[in-house]
Amino acid sequence: MRTVQAVVVPMAAAWLGLVACAGLSSCARSERVEVTSGEGAAETWPATAPTIDISNFNGRVDLVVDSRLNAPSVSATGISESTDSGEANDLSRLSVQASLAADGSVYKVVAGRPDGIDDDVRLELSIRVPSAGSIKVYNRGGPVKITGAPAGVQVENGRSPGQDDDDLDVLESTEAWIQVRTGGAIEQPVALVTDYGDVTLILGNAAKGDFTIQAPGGMAYARARVGSFDRFRGSAHEITARYNQGTNPVLLRTEHGDAYALMMESPETYSQRMW
After folding, report:
1. If you placed Cys at 41, which of 30, 99, 158, 174 could pair as Cys (CB 3.0 to 4.6 Å)?
2. Which 3 state secondary structure label does DSSP give 15?
3. Among 147, 122, 123, 126, which Cα is nearest to 135's?
């Protein structure tokens, strides 16, 4: 049996404390956030892959599904852009809970948002799991990157709390882009949606899908080096097409950014963006 344990990955000392900011009006501070397990959580990773359910109030999410693992690992880093160490920017108030449901059906990672915390405080999550059924991610204020998804994926991403369309300089520096890369036989629904940043889905020949690709504030792209698209209809901002005769709905949508569906060999080793 494989033991389930949330492991906090050690981080470089430069990221664990205050960064030297002499003479500067503002400077990011970061510190490790403890990851706890929920009450009644199962202690062994199930033989049947669980649903992975991740929620982050503001920051970024990096999820890797790797069958070579025996247990999941989660690391979390809290970051504040303010030198003010008052309650609104107190990183020690941040919390992350990672737990496997008693019946083994769901592995959930939740980053809690304390009352009164400043909108600029964010949390970066790095998660690795041995297997996954469907994957669900809710995030705000930063990128979501998923590698190795074997089934359906749903990602809802967007701007940080307190940001609006007038904060263009802030939005450009904290793009809420989404990237999913997998060689898995995707035959379940996929929905990747953000209001700011590119959306990229990179699949292999084993996948299928009935695609809707929407980028009202950017460009829509669909390219296949392996497999084939048919029933292709498109404009600069929207494409509908079927890949490998799939019937499972696949939605890629960004309000401000470009949307890409890229089909190629070895998608998990390809990187369109540096993390």
Report:
1. 99
2. helix
3. 147
Query: Dihedral (C-alpha) 228, 205, 105, 154: value to the nearest 10 degrees?
Result: -40
- Collapsing DSSP to helix, strand or coil, 193 comes out as strand
DSSP string, 167-179: -HHHHHHS---EE
227-272 per-position pLDDT tens digit: 999 999 999 999 999 999 999 999 999 999 999 999 999 888 766 5
| Tokens (6 digits) for 95 | 């919390």
Q: Match 């107190």 to its residue by tokens.
A: 90
d(CA 159, CA 165): 10
User: Where does the chain show beta strands of DSSP type E?
Assistant: 29-32, 35-36, 51-56, 59-65, 73-80, 95-100, 106-112, 122-129, 135-138, 144-147, 153-156, 178-182, 190-194, 199-203, 209-214, 220-224, 229-234, 238-243, 249-254, 259-263
**pLDDT tens-digit readout, 178-213:** 999 999 888 899 999 999 999 999 999 999 999 999
In this predicted structure, which of 64-78, 118-132, 166-180, 185-199 has the lowest mean pLDDT? Answer: 166-180
Distances in whole angstroms, Cα of residue 68 to Cα of each of 2, 22, 64, 130: 12, 45, 11, 7
Distance CA 144, CA 199 (A): 10
Cα–Cα distance, 42 to 231 (Å, whole number): 46
**Cα separation of 220 and 253, whole Å?**
9
